[in-house]
Amino acid sequence: MFDPRITSGGGNYRDHGFSKIPRRRLVRIVKLDNLINTKIDIVLIDTQGYDHEVLRGMKAVIENSRPKILTEFVPQWLSDMGEDPLKVLDEYKSWGYQIGSTDFDVPANSTPKDILSALGEAGLYFTNLILY
After folding, report:
1. Which of 12, 27, 70, 119 is the most buried (most CB within 10 A)?
2. What is the distance between the alpha carbons of residues 4 and 17, in angstroms, rounded to a whole number?
3. pLDDT at residue 132 greater than cutoff 90
4. In what order do the strands lie in the sheet with 42-45?
C-alpha cells in the first residue's frame, strides 16, 4: 500500500528496501468489520500510512470490543494522501480514545496539536501511537 514515489518525509524506495521502484498493484480491500465478529482486546496496525483507513474499516469492532490499539502515525504521509493529520488524531479521540506514543510522553489532556508538536520536538517524522 505504501508508494514511495508519492510520499516524502521518509526517504525514497531504496530507503524502504526496494531495489527498484515498485510496480503498482490493485488489491481487493475488505473491511475488518466484515471479517471479525468476536471480541478482541488488542490491535496492531502497520500499513505504511494507511493505518487510519484500516481503523475506519473496523469501527464496529472498535465500538463492540474497545481494544487497545498500537498504530503507526506518519503526518507527512497522511498529508501526501490528502488527509489532515490533526483531523485523523481528532477522529481517534472522537472514538473515545486517549492517545499515547511509544516514543515520547503524551499527557492525558493533550490535544492533537500538542501531539504533533511533541513529535516535531522529538525530531521524529513518525511515531507509533497507543490508543487506549
Report:
1. 119
2. 11
3. yes
4. 42-45, 68-73, 127-131, 99-101
What is the Cα–Cα distance from 49 to 55, expressed in whole angstroms?
Answer: 12
Which pLDDT belongs to residue 26?
83
Mean pLDDT over the full length of the chain? 87
How far is the C-alpha of 43 from the C-alpha of 54, rounded, in Å?
11
Q: Cell triple for residue 69?
A: 490499539
Nearest to 131 by CA among 49, 64, 45, 48: 45
| CA separation for the pair 113, 99 (Å, rounded) | 12
Residue reference for cell 492517545: 99
More confident residue, 1 or 40: 40
**Computed from CA positions of residues 28, 40, 81, 8, in that sequence, does the dihedral angle turn out positive or negative?**
negative
Q: Which residue has the cell 497507543?
A: 130
How far apart (Å, rounded) are the C-alpha atoms in residues 56 and 33? Answer: 9
CA distance 13 to 70: 25
Helices (H), the chain: 51-56, 59-65, 75-80, 85-94, 112-121
DSSP symbol at 24: P
